[in-house]
Amino acid sequence: MSTAVHSVPAPALLDLGPIAQLRAGRLVRRLAQLFLGLALYGVSLAMMVLGDIGLAPWDVLHSGFIRHVPITLGQAVVLFSFVVLVFWIPLREKPGVGTIANALVVGMSADATLAVLDAPDNPAARIGLMVGGVLLCGLATALYIGAQLGRGPRDGLMTGLHRRTGLSIRLVRTVLEVGVVVIGLLLGGTLGLGTVVFALTIGPIAQWLMPLFLIDLRADLRAGLPGDAPETAPEIVG
């Protein structure tokens, strides 16, 4: 007598419109996870600034930009978030609550962290801040994307290019990070060991952590949104 073994499908990252994101269920938990992830993302960027061993690639761009205009790093993060959203249009990415929240909260969190913490003089502490910042950013990315309330501007650009080109998330993210570093250097931004570590490891870290925090909404959608067949974003979770 044989026994059939039914495998449980892995959680899927769904490509939902803004209304479907809000109607998909478990909204309180998802909003809490979203804003926790965004706040931690800003903290992680500030940790790398305080470590002073190289900024995250996008912050190389931001730091170069603020050399020419009188704004803070966090304000530059907010500004470039909305600039990046323009590139979503040809990629047909769908924004959500998380998209707008990301554009605002990450920069505010980074500035708030920098306002209350001082950069350490101890080299070991600086290295710890750099490594911790990279790891925390990977965790924060998995948290806020896993809430399925819309990807942030930069990650939406990553997933949009992944979907349209068929290239892996790891490759697309690495190419984007290297590209913004080059532009940042041309503007006078600072490159360091932390930049290289971030660019090469953040994609794999986020992809490894994603299954732990991705909230599976397919059952909720089948129960609450009959006839809706959202598109999945393959390879995001492995």
What does this structure look like?
The structure is a single chain. The chain is mostly helical and 238 residues long. Helix content is 68%, strand content 2%. It has eleven helices and two strands. The protein is globular, with a radius of gyration of 18 Å. It starts with 13 loop residues before the first strand and ends in a 6-residue tail after the last strand. The N terminus and C terminus are likely disordered.
> What can be said about the biggest beta sheet?
2 strands, antiparallel
Shape: globular
The largest sheet has its strands arranged as 1-2
Distance between the termini: 35 Å
* Computed structural class: mainly alpha
Count the E strands.
Answer: 2
Evaluate the radius of gyration. 18 Å
> Helical segment tally?
11
Q: Which residues sit in consecutive blocks of at least 5 with pLDDT less than 50?
A: 1-8, 225-238
Approximate helicity band: 55-70%
List keywords for this structure.
238 residues, mainly alpha, two-stranded antiparallel sheet, 11 helices, 2 strands, 68% helix, globular, disordered C terminus
